[in-house]
Each structure stands twice: as C-alpha cells, then as structure tokens.
Amino acid sequence: MSLEYAGWDGTFAKVTGTGNDFVVIDDTARRIDYATIHSLIPVLCHRNFGVGSDGAIFVQQLSPTDIRWHFYNADGSRAEMCGNGARCAARFVFERQLVQGRSFNLHTEAGIIRIQSDTDDEIQVELTRPKQHRSCYTIKTIKTEYLLSSINTGVPHAVLRVSDIESFDLLNTAPEIRFHEQYPNGTNVNIYERIDTDTIRVRTYERGVEGETLSCGTGGVAAAIIACLDDSEVSTEVRVITNGGELLISFDKELNCVSMKGEAHILFWGSITPELINSQFTPMEKEV
C-alpha cells in the first residue's frame, strides 16, 4: 500500500493533552480514503514501529466555524468522542488557522461539541449531554464483585471508587470490567479517589488502547459526575488530577451543561516515510 493510494502525503503533527497523545493529520483537501487509511492506524500509532500515540485524528474544514474529525483509537477502531483528543484537534486547528477566531464547532460521531480558547495552550470543550447514566450496581467477574456506576460522556465509561488509587491494580482488574457482558460494545474503565471536596485523582484504562493512558478527558468527566451525583463526594466544579496533568470539569446537576478545560501542546511536526507503510510489522493482539 502506498501513501498516495490512501490519499495522504504523510505529514502530521504530534499533539498531547495532559499526556494523552495523538497523531493529527490535516484532511482539509478531503483526499484521504478512510476505507484504506484505517488499516494503517495500528502501525502509525505503535510506539516502537510507528510515530507512537494513543490515537489518530483527521480534521476536515466544513466552514470557517465548523470542523469535522475522523477519530481512531490506537488499534484502528473508531471512537465517537475523545475529550483530550478534542483539545488536541483544536490546538492543531488554531495553529493551522483553519477557523476564524478562537471558537468553533467540532463535529464528532457523538454530536457537535463547542470549542473555545483564549490562549493557544488552554482549551475548553463543551461536551454533548451525557447519557445512559446508571448508578451503583454490582457486576460479578471470575475473581470478585465490583460496585460500579457508569455513564456515557461521548463514549461509555464505568467508574469505580477506590480508597488507595496508587496501589490499585488497574491493569489486571480493568479488562474484566472492560469486556464484561454488561457492556456489549465494551467500556472504558475509570477508578477515582477523593482528595478534597473539589478534587479527585483519576486513572483510566481505555477501550481501543487496551491499556492505561496518562489521561482520559471523557473519563475524567465521567468520574467527576459520578463522584458528585452518585457518591456525593465532590461539588459540580471538580479538579481532576491524572498521571498526565490536571483538568477542570464543570457541570450542572441536570447535566445540561458539561465542560472540560485543559492544556494541549504541539510537540512536533513530521512526515512518515514509505518504509513505515510498507513494513511487514503486524501488531500482536494483547491477551486479556
């Protein structure tokens, strides 16, 4: 397969938002063949054989105030929404001056979200209304039972409150929940610990990455909402501390207005060579 065949010239930006990193690609010319390009994503995102990232984002300009994206997880699967990815896409859009002013609408598979920014690095995302909120239920696995809540903040999230987040074995525990029959399409898995009335610490195992990431924006939103509405642990304005940095989550109790604010940075610009595309490397599936 050639880059020309996929309709991509090989150029990209590497962008990070609180440690969640993405390869972002400009498709304003609308030349990319998405039926073909998706098969390249696992290699592109691989940290040893590709650029290395948690996902790939392709942006298209619809108008001076509207951008559409195509978002892929690192395994090549599509995702409806990604909070940190939205901030990273916005950072790219502002840098390339693909919109007029400091705000625009981002068209995602979860719906249209509003992006605004007063500075290059700090970006606010107004999310679609969360749905499928389910409070305090138990699931059984081979090893144990878990008391969870869940909510869809653009993508599905299961949330578990823990007393010692640093010692919790997320990598071994999360796959049992992520692939549980309760979630036919799978789910992201978040654990949180209350730090103060306005602060929680969050770790996330991401569906599609199949591992823990340094940060997950929609996961931070999900954990903040569950911590407030289900567990009465925090207020409606929550500082979320992740391994990759901090997010500020705000919402009303009816969940009509939900926003996330955090940083996004362009790390570098680059282009891939045909060697990456023509390599025989095939990522091995992880056992769960």
TrEMBL record:
Active site: C82, C216
Subcellular location: Cytoplasm
Signal peptide segment: none
PROSITE patterns for this protein: DAP_EPIMERASE (PS01326)
Protein keywords: Amino-acid biosynthesis, Cytoplasm, Isomerase, Lysine biosynthesis
Pathway the protein contributes to: Amino-acid biosynthesis; L-lysine biosynthesis via DAP pathway; DL-2,6-diaminopimelate from LL-2,6-diaminopimelate: step 1/1
One GO biological process term: lysine biosynthetic process via diaminopimelate
InterPro entries from the UniProt entry: DAP_epimerase_AS, DAP_epimerase_DapF
Pfam families, per the entry: DAP_epimerase
Catalytic activity reported: (2S,6S)-2,6-diaminopimelate = meso-2,6-diaminopimelate
Self-association and partners: Homodimer.
Database matches in HAMAP family: DAP_epimerase
Protein name: Diaminopimelate epimerase
Native source species: Desulfurispira natronophila
Highest classification ranks of the organism: Bacteria, Pseudomonadati, Chrysiogenota, Chrysiogenia, Chrysiogenales
